[in-house]
Fold these 2 entries.
Entry 1:
Amino acid sequence: GAGVSQSPSNKVTEKGKDVELRCDPISGHTALYWYRQSLGQGLEFLIYFQGNSAPDKSGLPSDRFSAERTGGSVSTLTIQRTQQEDSAVYLCASRQQRAAGETQYFGPGTRLLVL
Amino acid sequence: TQLLEQSPQFLSIQEGENLTVYCNSSSVFSSLQWYRQEPGEGPVLLVTVVTGGEVKKLKRLTFQFGDARKDSSLHITAAQPGDTGLYLCAGGLNRDDKIIFGKGTRLHILP
């Protein structure tokens, strides 16, 4: 595809429900990132996948959050037992290669609202 | 711990004025990026700097990476309403590591 795509673009769910957010990175990009952005704020790092290496999960806020990347391409971020404080925009980004200064390309985000 | 501190958090100025926003850290970065984000969209990359002391220009925008690669500045000359947005800096601690973002500077240019 031409860019990073994310689905759904918007998600409204009830507190306590599980949600899955999907990211399709740019073809051939080895690195994939998930970030969370609360209203008007900067980006909070969640998790980072690089090739076949173990993912860096250091930014996941709780064990209700998990992510996987299948076949080195598509990634799914899962939030279990959602809470109202999980409401935010979830952004995915990918980049091509391991070198200083490489560009991250962002998707449009999934806007999650937990009622 | 916020690794990248951006200042100011908010800035509202008149069209035609000049401004500078800052991105500071106690950590050394292998690269530093500046992004602009508009409401409802993901961040869009403006520039990447990798060499200490590097200066890059993008039309009316001038980006500088500190000599020690711990800080950066973005200077906008003759600001236009189209410059309005959230400006984010992001740094890579090494080429294999995650990219860390600052909280951003929200810029509003008044016509």
Entry 2:
Amino acid sequence: SQQGEEDPQALSIQEGENATMNCSYKTSINNLQWYRQNSGRGLVHLILIRSNEREKHSGRLRVTLDTSKKSSSLLITASRAADTASYFCATDDGNAGNMLTFGGGTRLMVKP
Amino acid sequence: GAGVSQSPSNKVTEKGKDVELRCDPISGHTALYWYRQRLGQGLEFLIYFQGNSAPDKSGLPSDRFSAERTGESVSTLTIQRTQQEDSAVYLCASSLRGRNTEAFFGQGTRLTVV
């Protein structure tokens, strides 16, 4: 079964609005990562948050991690049409030799 | 090379034929992953190589699927007697050994079984 599960599966917003995507997981983790995928091809790493961190920022991205709830959220502020993509969370649980396990993704559409 | 390279980028094959997909990871990356992604779906884990450890093959969907890796370099994913349900994008990624490292993905091989 999937380690990470994203919510919602699809999200449609207007340009300028904020987009929030959530990820839940099941086991303890070393870190949680967010990736972006355009056009069903290679994924691009966005941000990594360690298990002892609660919040991290990178440009218009803000990631939170709540290990007690086994959940994370990715916030994209002031969205742009170019942010349209699929976003995936991935967990590194350490017990499997630092293997990354991905969730099903959130498909974000930002309308101009 | 500068990034993870996969070949071919597209492959159309007839049902029942064998196919071999290739992945060249970033030099020095000891970890290598293969994932499968069906249209509009998430990433399905197939196999994970980490250095000289035995690979984690728990994601391979059937014995028609196999993968090898030569040391810490090239990996090949082989699908024997392809079926239409094997049609998908096959993604390879590599990362440095150890914790808290990001994975770098290739652009994938789009496999179509007709």
